[in-house]
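Hey, I'm writing a tutorial for new members on how sequence and structure tokens pair up, and I'd like a real worked example in the thread rather than a made-up one. If someone can provide the structure for the chain below, I'll link this post from the tutorial.
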Amino acid sequence: MKFILFFSLLLSPFVFAEENPEKAERFNKVKELAMERISSKMSLLEKNKSCISSASSREELKSCRKAGKESRLQLKEEFKAKRMAFKNSRKK
């Protein structure tokens, strides 16, 4: 009896999650935003890596690091704006 009760309590969130299409849609949107952010970060890191590996002087290395930092900050601001827009759209 305890076994059945335990598994019914364990699986109940999954049942309710699938019944609510709004939650499923919101989950998919959050997942999509996370994947987009990860892909953007990866491409940014690849660009920074290639810049650093091709640098032949200290000044070039310094400019690569500066450009990488500026790009990361810009990306952070873009995704912060997207996140806020998503949060604001949920409240309506």
